[in-house]
Request: fold
Amino acid sequence: MSMEEPEITHPDVIKKFMYVNRRAPYGTVYALETLEVVLIGAAFDQDVSLAFLDDGVFQIVKGQDTTQIGMKNFSPTFRALGDYEVSKLYVEKESLEERGLAPDDLLEITYEDEDDDWAEKPSIRIVDRTELTKIMAAQDVILSF
Amino acid sequence: MSILHTVNKSPFEKTTLQSCLDHASPGDAVILIEDGVYGALSRTEASERIAARMNEVSFYALGPDLLARGVANGSLAEGVKVVDYGEFVDLVAEHEIAQAWL
Reply:
């Protein structure tokens, strides 16, 4: 009796992974846990992007100070994503506007572009709903928690 | 019998704030806590709903929850008073009933 060969995905295949963030940062644990998954997933050398829409845009609002609520302020961790080669953070324009927010209210998140002499560039890209729809349609895998 | 209503959900994700406003009587107070503090942001649909009841209901937002979320005083809807934990306790003591809209 012969053993069947397990099917193995070719290790060099790079897929487009998108993590969809739709939750505010501290009321539930979803936002923090999603960020943990992104950091773990970054070890697999895939083409990763993050989308922030609905209440997810609140995760990257600058000036968060959690000292009085006894929880970890994990917003600075978003600024480390560039070091993990996660450099595409799509933020939905309409979601910001519905919440009275402007791009200036968001964290400064950058990455170093290896294809451009390691020039520092902004990771956050403000896109409208139509553009985000197209970006989602172009993914291989979309993860949302 | 005046009621202190607590709202702890984002008005952009749940209808909790709306249900609270629909059931608040003149003379009641509403305090926004946890993700509920996003209801205190100005220039939103939620802030318009709050403004519509401002003449008969008192509105408060819990300062530590605002700070945690990076919601600065400057971006708060007019008429919403920021309180600390101690003042929250005072509000609970001042009202006969506390109703938690979860």
In short: The domain at 16-144 of chain A is CATH 3.40.1260.10 (Hypothetical Protein Ychn; Chain: A,). Chain A has a mean pLDDT of 94.
